[in-house]
Every structure is written in C-alpha cells, then in structure tokens.
Amino acid sequence: MKELTIIFYISMAVWFLSEFYYKKMLASDQNAQKKDKSTLNILWIVIVPSIFLAVFISNAFKFPISNREWIFFLGESLIVIGIFFRWIIIRSLGKYFTVDVSIREDHKIKKEGFYKYIRHPSYAFALLTFVGLGLFLNNWISFAIAFIPPFLAFTYRIKVEEQALIEQFGDEYIQYRKETKKLIPFIY
After folding, report:
1. Which residues contact 108 (CB under 8 A, 6 or more apart)?
2. In terms of CATH architecture, what is 2-10+44-179?
3. Partner of 32 for a Cys bridge, out of 73, 75, 92, 102, CB 3.0 to 4.6 A?
4. Average pLDDT over residues 45-58
C-alpha cells in the first residue's frame, strides 16, 4: 500500500505540473478570437480547492466507498488513464488546443478520433481523473467534493465553448452536436 501511495503522489504531481504547463504554454495567440468569459479562471478557482478539500476530508473523516484495496488501484488507474489520454488529445489538436476558449482564423472542427464520439474528450478525461481521485481517496464525501464542483465548472466552460463554436461554424457545428455526445460516448 505504501508503494501505491507514492505512485498516487507522483501521479498527482504529474497532473498538476501538466495542467500548469498547459496553462502557461498553450494560451491562445494574439490572432485568436478570445471567447473565454473567465472560464479558465473559474476552473482553477474551483478545481484546486476541491482537490485539497477532498484530500483533507478523506484524512479527517472515514466514510469509505469500499473496505477492499481494489478501490485504490481502480482510482489510481483512472487518474493515470485520465492524465495520459488528456495529453494525447491535446497533442492531437496541435495548434488548435488552447487553455482559454478561443477561435483561430483557420480553425476547423475536429471530427475524427475521440471527437467522432464525443465533442469534449479533453474535458471527459480530465473529469475521469477527478473520478479516479475520488475513488482513490475512498471516501464518499471526498468523492463528491473531488468530482461535482469540477464537473459543474466544466459544464459552464462547455456551454461557453459551444456558443463560441456555434458563432464561428453555425450549422456545421450544430449538426456535429446532433451526431455526438458531450462527454460520454453514446450516453451524455
């Protein structure tokens, strides 16, 4: 169990450093139309306290999801899968990925790969990481704190982003929305 705890802290450090890197290095350029409406700030304001509060609660109160060790392995696996696939998705978008909601001059709607099934795979895998965190902490209250506030913040960001995409692409994006789900393939 000690080794899993070390792996957990390493994965959390990788997660924070990768998100910090995305924030610093992948902001939109000067030519992009910024449509963010402070959603990036909202995400940071919501996510960081949610994580720290979830960890604090898990240490302060015992309200276990499971009494078996598999919960820790499942949680850590989801954290790693979420981080890894978010990184793959960000790389697949290349220059079109920005941490703030913005539209580039030559912007196109990506409809292949993960985007064939869901419109926001980067957010889906970020949220999977939060699910993994909640499971790893093995506390129902921590799970709710780790997942619900970030989910609501991402939901707001998706609304802002989709409005910007509709303004830019009109019927093409509206049709794409009809053909795909928001975050979970075939479900939501």
Report:
1. 96
2. Up-down Bundle (1.20)
3. 102
4. 96
